[in-house]
Amino acid sequence: MNRSLLGIILAAGLTSSAAWAAASAPQKPADAESDSQAAQLKPQDMHFLTDADQAAKAGDSDGAVQLYHSAIIYAPGDPVPYERLAEFYVHSNRPEQAQRYFTLALDAQPAYAPALQGLALLDIAAGNRAAAQAQHDILLHSCGAKCPETAQVEKALNSRSAP
Fold first, then answer.
1. Distance between CA atoms of 116 and 153, rounded to whole angstroms?
2. Residue 23 to residue 11: CA distance in whole angstroms
3. C-alpha–C-alpha distance, residues 108 and 110, integer Å
4. Cα separations (Å) of 136 from 18, 73, 131?
5. What is the pLDDT of residue 45?
6. What is the pLDDT of residues 13-52, one digit of tens each?
7. Are 56 and 81 in contact (CB under 8 A)?
8. 3-class SS string, 61-120
9. DSSP letter (8 states) at residue 147
10. How far is CA 75 from CA 20, 26, 41, 140, 147, in A?
11. 3-class DSSP state for residue 5?
């Protein structure tokens, strides 16, 4: 084999090996505290949620939805804006949208108690006791029996258990 061709092959092999080694090397873990802070709405952006809540109370549905979406844009990893928008949709009798945003809140933070509660109550209202029980079980495991969300779901499950 030609020496220059052998050199190219070896260089390519070493380069790809180095790239593979760099890519497969353990990554420095991210600072969990800074990650969670980055996911949260910053104080200067909290007005989106309060303004959205006020718009909802005033009957300005379009304004409320836009403000909740603004909060989501500023903190896509924060489950609170998703959950608040889901609650808005619950009160607006739009369960499909509510379910979507409760699920997005759980994507942002798995086992987020208010979103689990919201999904369970939607499931109960839709007659899906098995799904509501599954949400209750997750709440019980992650939040505990004394958690207000767990208690609320348990109360709803028990009140609908009698035929």
1. 9
2. 18
3. 7
4. 49, 30, 9
5. 77
6. 433 333 333 333 333 333 333 344 446 878 777 899 999 9
7. no
8. HHHHHHHHHHHHHHCCCCHHHHHHHHHHHHHCCCHHHHHHHHHHHHHHCCCCHHHHHHHH
9. S
10. 34, 28, 5, 28, 26
11. helix
Average pLDDT over residues 115-133: 97
159, 153 contact by CB (below 8 A): no
Q: Which two tokens stand for residue 98?
A: 């509510």
The structure tokens listed for 9 are 């092959």
Whole-number Å distance between alpha carbons of 163 and 158? 11
Average pLDDT over residues 154-163: 79
Which structure tokens are listed for 107?
């994507």
Phi, psi of 93 (to 5 degrees): 55, 45
Q: Which of 104, 97, 105, 110 shows the shortest CA–CA distance to 64?
A: 97
Q: Convert the pLDDT of each residue in 59-115 to its tens digit.
A: 999 999 999 999 999 999 999 999 999 999 999 999 999 999 999 999 999 999 999
